[in-house]
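Q: C-alpha cells for this one, please.
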Amino acid sequence: MLTEGAVRASDRRAQFVGIAAYEEAGGVVLRDLFQHDDGGWLQDPALLDRLAIEKLQTEAQTIAGEGWKWIEVATDFPYGHSSGLRRLRTTGPVLSDEEQATYDALQQEYGALEEQWADSPDDLPDEVDQRFGEIEAALDAFHNRPPSFEPTDVARAGAFVSIDSAGNLKVERGFVRPEDEAPIEPETPAGGADDEASVASGADAGTPPPVQRAVITIGGASEPEPAEEDEGLKPLPERLMMELTAHRTLALRDALANDPHVALTALLHKLVSDAFVRTSTAGGCLEVSVRHVFFQAQAADLKDSGSAQSVDERQKAWTADMPVGDDQALWDWLDTLDQASRLALLAHCVSYGVNALFEKVDRYGGAGLSQHGLERRMAQADRLARAVNLDMAEAGWRPTVENYLGRVTKGRILEAVREAKGEQAAQLIDHLKKGDMAKEAERLLADSGWVPEPLRVSGAETVPGEVEALPEFLAGDEESAEAELDPEPLAVAAE
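A: Here is the predicted structure, written as C-alpha cells:
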C-alpha cells in the first residue's frame, strides 16, 4: 500500500511546513479521490522532518535575539519535558499608553455588544457577528504577545521551540536549569575586599547583562517503526504497556484532583499505613511527602491529552495565586484558605503521587520493583480508578495506529474490533495486510469507547456495537457478501 509509512496531511508537521512548501521541495502527496483522507498522505517523511526542523531553526534564531542562554528545538517534546526546571515569573506584556487605550476601548465595545444582544445570541446580524470576530481577534493579538521577563533572568534561562497539536509554532519561554541558578553570595562587611572584587568584575545585580548568543540544540528523534507481526495474541510489548499506563496514570491524577473526598481517603490510607504498619527513622519535622512520578516511556500524544491539559492548567492556576519561594508567606497563605480551597489544593497535590505505571520487574532480588510490588501497585490503581469512576474513553483516549493498533499483532487488532463491533466486523478486515488492517480498525473503533485491557478497570465489560461496512477501496477483490462470511476465501486473500 502506498500509504504504508506515509504521513497524513493533517499531521502537525505537515500543517506547520505547509503542503505547498513540501511539494515545492520535491515531496509527493498521495490523494484518494473517493475517500476522506484529511488532505492526502505525504510520501516522504524524512523530507517533511527536515523541512520542519529547518523552519523551527529559523524561528529559533529569531527568538535567540531576545537574549536567552539556550533554546531547545524539536518537532515535539514529551509531556513533563520541563520538569526539574524553574519557570520564571512574567511581568506580562507591557502596553504603551496608546495600546492600552485601544485595548480598553475594545473591551468596552465587546461588553456593550454582549449586553445589547444577550437576549438573542443565536440571531446575530451578520455585521454584528463579524464585529465580534474582529474584536476577539484584536484582543487575542494583545493576549498572545510574548511575556516580559527581567533581562538578568533571561540571561540564565532558556526556551523550548516546537510545533503544537494544530501545527502552529509553539514557544515556551523562561525556564532555568538548576546549574544556571544564580549562586547565593555570603554577606560581607561593607567596604570589604569582596566589594572591591565585585566592582572590579562588574558583578552588579542591577546591571542587565549583554545580549548573548543562545545555544540552540535540535532534538526529537522519532521511535523506529516496529517489525511487522503476523498472527496470534502475543503479550503486549513492554514499551507499549508503559505508554498505556502512563496515559492511565495521568487520567487518574486528573480524576483524583477533582475528587477531594477520595484524595483525602488516599492520603489517610497512606498515612495510616506508614504510622501503624511500619515506621521511618529519617530526619525532618513531618515525614509526609508526595514523590512526583515522571514518565520515562510515553506516547507522543500524551502531552496533548485532555488529562495533561487539565493537570497543567490547574497547576498554573494554583501557582499564580500562591507565594512560592517564601516559606513563611506560603504558610500564612495556606492558613487563610477556606476549607473548600484547602481540600481542592490537597487533592491536587496528592494527585501528583499517583503511580499506576507498568514497569519491568527486578527478577534477581535487587533494589528494583518486585513482581509482588507491581501486582500490588496495579491492584491499588484499580481500586483508585473505581473510587473516582475513571473511564479512559471518557477521559479522551482513542485507539489509533500510532498509539496502539500499529504496534500489536494482527490477532490483537482483530480482537479489539471483535470486542467493540462483533465478529462480523472483524471478518470485514481479517483479509487485509497489517498496515491497512490497523488503519481500518482505527476507523471502526472511533467513538466506540473501546480501550485495551491495561486501560480498563478490572471487571469492566465491552459490549459490541454496530458493524460498519468496509470502504470499497479496501475490499480487495471480494466479489460478494458471501465471500465476507466464508472464512476460507478470506484466508486465501490474506496469503
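A few notes: The longest helix spans residues 45-64. Residues 193-206, 220-226, 275-287, 477-495 have pLDDT under 50 and may be disordered.
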